[in-house]
# Entry
Amino acid sequence: MRELKPSLHKTMVDRLVAIVGRDAVISEESELVVYECDAYTMQKNLPTAVVLPATTEEVAQVVRVCNELELPIIPRGAGTSLSGSVLAVDGGVMIALTRMNRILNVDVRNRRALVEAGCVNAWITREASPHGLFFAPDPSSQPACTIGGNIATNSGGPHTLKNGVTTNHVLGYEMVMPDGSIKWLGTKPDGGEDVGGYDFRGAAIGSEGMFGVVTRALVRLVKTPASFKTFLAIFDSVDQASHTVSDIIAAGIVPAALEMMDQVITRALEEAYKVGFPLDAGAVLIVELDGLAGGVEQQAKQVEAICENNNAREVRLAKDDAERAALWKCRKRAFGAVGRLSPNYVTQDGVVPRSKVPAIMQFIREVSERHQLRIPNVFHAGDGNIHPLILFDERDPDQVKRALMAGDEILTKCVELGGSVTGEHGIGAEKIDFMEKQFAKDDLEAMKKLRTVFDPQQRCNPHKMFPGAKRCAEFAQKKQISA
Ligand SMILES: Cc1cc2nc3c(=O)[nH]c(=O)nc-3n(C[C@H](O)[C@H](O)[C@H](O)COP(=O)(O)OP(=O)(O)OC[C@H]3O[C@@H](n4cnc5c(N)ncnc54)[C@H](O)[C@@H]3O)c2cc1C
# Structure
């Protein structure tokens, strides 16, 4: 925790309370523990205070106070980040948007919704679905994660394969800039288009809370497809399932979703939810096709044939909406089910070209054996976006060390195979060391320059993304690097 002089601490608390009220400021150490990390638990540190504003104006006032007191600000949504992007590395004031969670308007005619940044992702589709519309980005964390967090990480999800990621579905948004001014980037809620000049809307999507605090967003709604076919294809081995993924894409079919789960995951899910996954299957694929009934029917036959060519043991078709919903519910609870297997796990988020899915799966098996750690896989196979879950026990320093090494080796391999160290979870505090492996020096310099356009003082979510950033001391020790 960043130690402030008692007089400065009191000034900070008093001034924050004056803006948002006593109940919306957290500054006691025992309460701040809730905010010591996000869903990436390898690094922890307490923020100096957490503030929960209720309006954009309050956010702006909080930011101005932080500027005057020279304190870092850390925007936070639901804290589901898997890369430590919400970590208060050097303390600071965390601005949690969770009270600003309203859906302000669903404009069915123009297929848009205006929401506050703390609105939970799944609520938008819940509100839009009676009108035959939905919000397409569907991270597996969608019952909890917020639109502000989705914008800041450019979130994807199982249906990214066909529908694209958050940037494709956010028309514009309001942002409190690091100097406390309020700007609207992109299309405005009154319909005013902002299409001339540079695309600052696009530039700040995926900026991991380093460009300002998003307070409201105008999102695109898309029409619910006329028909779906959702299959569960069961294989004896991960290899067979991996080759099926490559073959489906090579056949020119773009499923709405193409997800893979290996045996450890399907067993954990079956134990938790009893959905009928075979316990001895090596891997399963969930393949979803959507569109007009005729086209879907024809593609379904092709997909079934491809699965059979790859020796699928069984291909089950969800026979109604309830079965389809049950499959997706299960898939989206996979990370949670893994909590039954191990006290801790770290989720990696590498990307490889789809044709390299079999190779990276083989490599992960080797890493698992070498480091004597279980590494189950549940991932967006159609995008080549892998999520190996490295299981460990944080009470055993040697396991922690091995888990960190295993993660490093897997991500390095992704880059070697022509992929990336992140598909959707971002760089955060976790993957700073990989930036130099993936980007040239000039690229990193250009990114830093763009950041200073938005935040010249670099006060907004500092110590993230760029090599050389400060680390939490305890983590630096675990990784044997300097803090
Ligand atoms: C079980 C599980 C499954 C997941 N599945 C997926 C998945 O399928 N796809 C995927 O992409 N991600 C996934 N994630 C990761 C995570 O849910 C996403 O990154 C999500 O977008 C984070 O939203 P959040 O509201 O929790 O943001 P937080 O975790 O609170 O913040 C994430 C980043 O956004 C910034 N931020 C948050 N709110 C704002 C704001 N209002 N203004 C500016 N910056 C802000 C933060 O500073 C931080 O840098 C998963 C996580 C979990 C735990």
